[in-house]
Design a protein that fits this description.
The structure holds 2 protein chains of 2 kinds. In chain A, 0% of the residues lie in helices and 48% in strands. In chain A, strands 2, 4, 5, 6, 9, 10 and 11 form a 7-stranded mixed β-sheet that branches. The radius of gyration of chain A is 13 Å and the shape is globular. By secondary structure, chain B is an all-beta fold. In chain B, strands 2, 6, 7, 8, 11, 12 and 13 form a 7-stranded mixed β-sheet that branches. A 4-stranded antiparallel β-sheet of chain B has the order 1-3-10-9, with no helix packed on it. A two-stranded antiparallel ribbon of chain B has the order 4-5. Classes of the chains: A mainly beta, B mainly beta. At the A-B interface, strand 5 of A face strand 7 and strand 12 of B.
């Protein structure tokens, strides 16, 4: 059974940093692109960052470019999102999500983590 | 970026009645190489992550009830719930995967 279990998150002051983790099981982690998708309170979904299976290619939305860094440790089956210089507008539930297709695509998301709330406030 | 526009923002449907949600993309998401539409539909219930209902615009995900169907091609797509059940109350999103950045529609809230 595919499982994505998230940790990290919480309350952080503007300008602060936070690291999110997503522990994967039930599939060959290194063979799939993984993403972070966020959802501001009461709002829609935004694709934030993605990384291919071997970590060779990454994507960051313009809204987080230069502040967020996605990475993965395939030996630990874990995905990360390092978030620096956090702003109030980064407040959201962050989901890790798995691409359904084997290989280096970024397409849609067939499995999602439970979500973790990041609140940026003084 | 490909902009995805959903309509309506919300709709109220009686139990057993049909619900229709529209999604329009700012450019075609039909890939000529394989004649597939790179569009997926999700259902999100309160406090839960989204769940895939339909991919390739019209292929139902395994385990999804057959009252859910997707149609359309190019830039105009529809998600239909043929006979609304109480458990279908949720927000529904379309998403294109034709080109990065992957983009979502704004969501449609379905209520009884």
């Amino acid at each position: 059974e595919v499982q994505l279990v998230q940790s990290g998150g919480g309350l952080v002051q503007p300008g602060g940093s936070l690291r999110l983790s997503c522990a994967a099981s039930g599939f060959t982690f290194s063979s799939y692109t993984m993403s972070w998708v966020r959802q501001a309170p009461g709002k829609g979904l935004e694709w934030v960052s993605a990384i291919t299976g071997n970590g060779g290619a990454t994507y960051h939305a313009d809204s987080v470019k230069g502040r967020f860094t996605i990475s993965r440790d395939n030996s630990k089956n874990t995905l990360y999102l390092q978030m620096n210089s956090l702003r109030a507008e980064d407040t959201a539930v962050y989901y890790c999500a798995k691409d359904p297709f084997y290989g280096d695509s970024w397409s849609s998301f067939d499995y999602w983590g439970q979500g973790t709330l990041v609140t940026v406030s003084s | 970026d490909i902009v995805m526009t959903q309509s309506p923002d919300s709709l109220a449907v009686s139990l057993g009645e049909r619900a229709t949600i529209n999604c329009k993309s700012s450019q075609s998401v039909l890939h000529s190489s394989n004649n597939r539409n790179y569009l997926v539909w999700y259902q999100q219930k309160p406090g839960q992550p989204p769940k895939v209902l339909i991919y390739w615009a019209s292929t139902r995900e395994s385990g999804v009830p057959d009252r859910f169907s997707g149609s359309g091609s190019g830039t105009d797509f529809t998600l239909t719930i043929s006979s609304l059940q109480a458990e279908d109350v949720a927000v529904y999103y379309c998403q294109q995967y034709y080109r990065t950045p992957l983009t979502f529609g704004g969501g449609t809230k379905v209520e009884i």
